[in-house]
Design brief:
34 helices; transmembrane helix; two-stranded antiparallel sheet; transferase; mainly alpha; TMTC_DUF1736; disordered N terminus; transmembrane
C-alpha cells in the first residue's frame, strides 16, 4: 500500500531527500581506507567474521547450554510444539513462580530443529548455525552502516546507493571482530541474541525500503512499515531486546528522513511556537508512521505481557546485588558503575568473563570509593557527545552522533535495571546490539581524526592493528568457550572474587572424578559467599562420599537453614543422617525434600533404601514404586524391588516386577541379571540362562554375572559350563564372596564323578 503526501512541504522533503549526497559531507573523503565494491566488501566481512569464531565449531555444550538445551524438554519430539508458546527459554511454564520469564519461543524452536536434524545432543550443528548467523549479521551490517553513516538515497531505478563504502566497511569489520561477541557466537545459548540481531537489522532495512522512490513520487510504503513492525515482533520472540528496533526506526525517520533538529524542536515545543508544525515532527507522514510503530509496539508488548503473566521473574540478591540495596543512592551509583563497565568492555574487550555476579563486582557504598571515577568518566563522555549531537551547527555531525548514541543506548535499555530488575550484573551478550552504536561512534571519530591528521596512512595502520588484535582475541576467547574447564579457569584471573567461578571450576573437576581438587574450589566458593547453598550442597555431597559425615551434615544443615525449600540439600542431608544411623531424622529430611519437590524420584529411591534398612519392606516397595512411576527408567529402584522381593521369597512377584522393568528398560544388563537370578531360583533354567548370557554380553567383565551363571549351571547339572564360568569369575575377582567355595564344591564333585567313571 502506498500513501501520498499531500502537505505543502512534501516536495521540499523529497528534493532534500534525493540531494543528500550533495548537501552533506561524505565521511569517506576524510579517511584512508580500503575502497571495495559492495559485493567484495561483504565477502571480506563474512570471511573475517568466520575466521574469528571458526575454532568454536567443535566445542562442547558449556555453562547455560546444559539447562537451555540438554535439560530442556521442549527440544524433544514428545513435547508438543504448542508448548513452546507457553514455556520460557529454559522449558519451564511461564505461569510457574520459578520461571525466568524469558520468552524466546523462536530461539527454542531453532534449537529443536538442530536437535531433530542432528539426531540428538551433538553440539557441532548448534555451533555451526551460530557462526553462520554471526557472519550473516556482519554482512548485513555493511548495508546498515552505509545508511547510518552515509544516509539513505535511492537511484532512479529504486536501488539504494552506498554513499559511504569505506566507512561502512570499517564499521562492519569493527562489529564482526569485536571480542565481546564471543559469548553470543561460541556459547550456544547466545543464539537468542544472534537471532534477535538478525531480525532487528532486517526490520531496520525493511523500514528503509518504505522510502524507496516510485514512479509517482512523494511516497512511502505502509506495507514496508508494517513488515518492519512484524520483523520487530519476530526479533522480540527471539529475545526481549528486539522490540527496541521500533523506537530506533522512529528515531531514524525523524533524523534522516525528516531532518529533524532535535534541539530546535525542543525549544519550539517549550515556547509552544506556532511554527511547530514546520519543525518536522508534525508532518503528516511522520506522525502516521510513528503511530504505526507505537501501536505495533504497544500491541506486541501487551500480548507478551498477557502470555508471561503479571508477575515479574524472581531473582536473588546474588544475581543482582545492587537491585536489592535499600538505599536509592547505592542502587543508582552501582547501576551507573555497571554501565561504565559495559562501556569499558566495548572500548577494551580484554578482560572477559562468562559470569560477573556473586561478588565479582563489589558494591560501591560511598562516594569515597575510587571507582566513582569510572562513573564520572562515563557521564563526562556521554554528556559531551549528547551536547555535540544536539548543539552542533553541522547537521551531518548531529545526525551521526544522535544515531550512534541511539543505537548504543536504546537496545541496552531492557538490561539497564531502569524499568525492571534483571538477573545479572554485567552480561557480555546484552551488548551485542549496542555495539552497533559503538562502531558508529568509533568510525566517526576515526574520520574526524583522519581529517585533522597529516599522515592518514599511519592512522589507518593503527586501526588495522586494532582489528588484527581483535581477531586474535576473538580466536583465543572462542577457544576458551570450547570446553567448560577452559571457560571456567579463564574466569579465575578476571573475577577471582566471584564465588560462582570457583563453584563451576569445582563442579567441573568433580564431574571428572577429581573430587579432592574440587573440594578446594567449593570451599573457596563458600568462603567468598557464605550463603552459597549450591556450593555447600555439592561440598557436603563429596564429604559424604569420603565418609566425612560430621562436616557434611553441618554444611547441608546450614544450606537448608539458609534456603528451607532446597529439596536436593534436604535429600542429601537425609542420606548423611541415614549413614549416621539417625533414621528418624533421615526419614523427616526425605519427606521435607519431597514436600518441596513433589516429583522427586531419587528421593523416593533413597527413602526406600532407608525403609529397607529398617525392615519396613512394604514401605520400601511403595517408595521404590513411586520412584519408578515418576521416572520409569529408574534402574536402581527397579533392581531394589526385584532383589527385595527375591530375598523375601516372593519369587512370582519379583519375576513380574523384573519383566515389567525390562519392558521399559530392555537393554539394562543389571535388570537382566536380577531377573535371571529369580528365574533360576524358580527353576526356569533355560530362560534364566538366556538372560545371564545377554547380561554378560553387555557387561563381560562383571565377575558376579559369571559366578551366578555358574551357580545356575551347577544346579542345572551342566557341570563343565559351571566350571568354566566359575573360573572366569575368579579370574575377574579372586575375592568374589562364595564363588571360591562353590568352585571347590564343584571340583570335588567332578573328582568324585571321575573316580566313579574310572
Amino acid at each position: 500500500q502506498i500513501c501520498n503526501q499531500h502537505n505543502a512541504e512534501a516536495p521540499n522533503l523529497e528534493q532534500a531527500f534525493h540531494r543528500m549526497a550533495q548537501t552533506e559531507p561524505n565521511l569517506d573523503h576524510d579517511i584512508s581506507w580500503f575502497l571495495l565494491p559492495s559485493y567484495w566488501a561483504k565477502m571480506v566481512v563474512a570471511l573475517i567474521s568466520f575466521l574469528c569464531f571458526a575454532n568454536s565449531y567443535d566445542g562442547d555444550f558449556v555453562f547455560d547450554d546444559s539447562e537451555a538445551i540438554i535439560n530442556n524438554k521442549d527440544l524433544r519430539a514428545e513435547t508438543p510444539l504448542g508448548d513452546l508458546w507457553h514455556h520460557d527459554f529454559w522449558g519451564s511454564k511461564l505461569s510457574s513462580n520459578t520461571s525466568h520469564k524469558s520468552y524466546r519461543p523462536l530461539t527454542v524452536l531453532t534449537f529443536r530443529i538442530n536437535y531433530f536434524f542432528a539426531g540428538g545432543f551433538y553440539p557441532v550443528g548448534f555451533h555451526v548455525i551460530n557462526i553462520i548467523l554471526h557472519c550473516t549479521i556482519s554482512v548485513l551490517m555493511v548495508d546498515v552502516f552505509s545508511i547510518l553513516l552515509g544516509g539513505l538515497q535511492f537511484s532512479n531505478k529504486g536501488r539504494r546507493l552506498n554513499l559511504a563504502p569505506k566507512t561502512s566497511l570499517l564499521a562492519a569489520l569493527l562489529f564482526a571482530v569485536h571480542p565481546v561477541h564471543t559469548e553470543c557466537v561460541a556459547g550456544i545459548v547466545g543464539r537468542a541474541d544472534l537471532l534477535c540481531a538478525l531480525f532487528f537489522l532486517l526490520s531496520f532495512l525493511g523500514y528503509c525500503k518504505a522510502f524507496r522512490e516510485n514512479k509517482e513520487g512523494h511516497h512511502f510504503s505502509v506495507f514496508w512499515v508494517l513488515v518492519s513492525v512484524l520483523l520487530g515482533a519476530i526479533a522480540m520472540l527471539c529475545k526481549e531486546q528486539g522490540i527496541t528496533i521500533l523506537g530506533l526506526n522512529a528515531v531514524f525517520d525523524a533524523l534522516v528522513i525528516n531532518k529533524l533538529n532535535v534541539l530546535e524542536f525542543i525549544q519550539k515545543l517549550v515556547r509552544k511556537d506556532k511554527l511547530l508544525e514546520n519543525a518536522g515532527l508534525l508532518r503528516k507522514g511522520l506522525l502516521f508512521r510513528i503511530t504505526l510503530l507505537m501501536s505495533g509496539g504497544a500491541s506486541i508488548l501487551y500480548i507478551r505481557w498477557r502470555i508471561m503473566g503479571t508477575g515479574p521473574p524472581a531473582f536473588t540478591e546474588v544475581d543482582n546485588p545492587a537491585s536489592f540495596a535499600d538505599s536509592l543512592f547505592v542502587r543508582a551509583i552501582n547501576y551507573n558503575y555497571y554501565y561504565s563497565l559495559n562501556a569499558w568492555l566495548l572500548l577494551c574487550p580484554w578482560w572477559l568473563c562468562f559470569d560477573w555476579s556473586m561478588g565479582c563486582i563489589p558494591l560501591i557504598k560511598s562516594v569515597s570509593d575510587w571507582r566513582i571515577i569510572a562513573l564520572a568518566a562515563l557521564w563526562f563522555c556521554l554528556i559531551g557527545l549528547i551536547c555535540q549531537a544536539l548543539c552542533s551547527e553541522d547537521s551531518h555531525k548531529r545526525r551521526i552522533l544522535t544515531l550512534g548514541l541511539g543505537f548504543l543506548i536504546i537496545p541496552f535499555l531492557p538490561a539497564s535495571n531502569l524499568f525492571f530488575r534483571v538477573g545479572f550484573v554485567v552480561a557480555e551478550r546484552v551488548i551485542y546490539l549496542p555495539s552497533i552504536g559503538y562502531c558508529i561512534l568509533f568510525t566517526y571519530g576515526f574520520s574526524l581524526l583522519s581529517k585533522q591528521a597529516k599522515k592518514k596512512k599511519i592512522l589507518a595502520v593503527a586501526v588495522l592493528g586494532i582489528l588484527l588484535i581483535n581477531v586474535m582475541r576473538c580466536a583465543l576467547r572462542s577457544s576458551q568457550w570450547r570446553s567448560e574447564e577452559q571457560l571456567f579457569r579463564s574466569a579465575l584471573s578476571v573475577c577471582p572474587l566471584n564465588a560462582k567461578v570457583h563453584y563451576n571450576v569445582g563442579k567441573n573437576l568433580a564431574d571428572k572424578g577429581n573430587q579432592s581438587a574440587a573440594i578446594k574450589y567449593y570451599r573457596e566458593a563458600v568462603r567468598l559467599n557464605p550463603k552459597y547453598v549450591h556450593a555447600m550442597n555439592n561440598l557436603g555431597n563429596i564429604l559424604k562420599e569420603k565418609n566425612e559425615l560430621q562436616e557434611a551434615e553441618e554444611l547441608l544443615s546450614l544450606a537448608v537453614q539458609i534456603q528451607p525449600d532446597f529439596a536436593a540439600a534436604w535429600m542429601n542431608l537425609g542420606i548423611v543422617q541415614n549413614s549416621l544411623r539417625r533414621f528418624e531424622e533421615a526419614e523427616q529430611s526425605y519427606w521435607t525434600a519431597i514436600k518441596h519437590r513433589k516429583k522427586y524420584p531419587d528421593c523416593y529411591y533413597n527413602l526406600g533404601r532407608l525403609y529397607a534398612d529398617l525392615n519396613r519392606h512394604i514401605d520400601a516397595l511403595n517408595a521404590w514404586r513411586n520412584a519408578t512411576v515418576l521416572k520409569p527408567e529408574h534402574s536402581l529402584a527397579w533392581n531394589n524391588m526385584i532383589i527385595l522381593l527375591d530375598n523375601t521369597g516372593n519369587l512370582a512377584q519379583a519375576e513380574a516386577v523384573g519383566r515389567e522393568a525390562l519392558e521399559l528398560i530392555p537393554n539394562d544388563h543389571s535388570l537382566m541379571f536380577s531377573l535371571a537370578n529369580v528365574l533360576g531360583k524358580s527353576q526356569k533354567y533355560k530362560e534364566s540362562e538366556a538372560l545371564f548370557l545377554k547380561a554378560i554380553k553387555a557387561n563381560p567383565n562383571a565377575a558376579s554375572y559369571h559366578g551366578n551363571l555358574a551357580v545356575l549351571y551347577h544346579r542345572w547339572g551342566n557341570l563343565d559350563l559351571a566350571k568354566k564360568h566359575y573360573e572366569v569369575s575368579l579370574k575377574l575377582d579372586p575375592m568374589a564372596p562364595g564363588t571360591k567355595e562353590n568352585y571347590n564344591l564343584l571340583r570335588r564333585k567332578l573328582e568324585q564323578l571321575q573316580k566313579k567313571g574310572g
